[in-house]
Amino acid sequence: MSDTRDDLAITEELYQFLQGNVPEGYKIAESAVPKLTADQAWTVIWFLGNLYWQVTDHIERCGVCGELYDTWAEGTCLDYGDAPYNFCEECSEGPEAEAKRASKAAEKARGER
Ligand SMILES: [Zn+2]
User: Fold this and answer.
1) Are 44 and 83 in the same domain?
2) Are residues 66 and 84 in the same domain?
3) pTM for the predicted model, two decimal places
4) How far is the CA of 27 from the centre of ligand 1 (A)?
């Protein structure tokens, strides 16, 4: 099977599928279609990517706007303090990311880790 779609598109399809949007060409009984919330669907993808490596781990979900994005191509990870940790390209310049960078700088200035 040759699949030319990129990881972001495939992950997006799984993300939609887990929320009940079955792609064309699949026959799945209505009672078997997953109907997760966006947060639950993302938790499944995150779990697969981080613990079992069955899906790629470089697709992330922005903690501000909720969009999926490819970390190899865009976005920022600010992996400290409180959530959000992942920022898509657009949100990485937004007020949430700026506030987080500022809190890190203030922490450094106080001599904490
Ligand atoms: Zn975003």
Assistant:
1) no
2) yes
3) 0.66
4) 33
